[in-house]
Amino acid sequence: MIFKANGWSEKLSNPTDKHTQKPNKTVTAVLKGPDPGYITTAICIVHSAIIILKEKDKLPLSGGVFTPAAAFTDTSLMKKLEDRGIKLTFQ
């Protein structure tokens, strides 16, 4: 699967701040692995749950809803997915 996202190259200092200019950066992510509809989805969900149970100390301490990148950035999730044949690269 190929994902494309538009955004900004600079990070805002405060989450409540808003960008004043149009997005100036495009990122392309390529996900390679087994069938994305069933097999990869199941592997991602199961390993995410395992990480939540076993690596609580590496998850954000407070907040509400997080993107997967924000929630799992300090965990071993990507290593576990790579061990199962799922690879995510950015171009």
Automatic annotation (TrEMBL):
Family matches, as InterPro entries: Saccharopine_DH-like_oxidrdct
CC per GO annotation: lipid droplet; mitochondrion; plasma membrane
GO biological process, alphabetically ordered: glycolipid biosynthetic process
Region (Disordered): 1-24
Top-rank lineage group of the source organism: Eukaryota
Listed PANTHER family: SACCHAROPINE DEHYDROGENASE-LIKE OXIDOREDUCTASE
Protein name (record): Saccharopine dehydrogenase-like C-terminal domain-containing protein
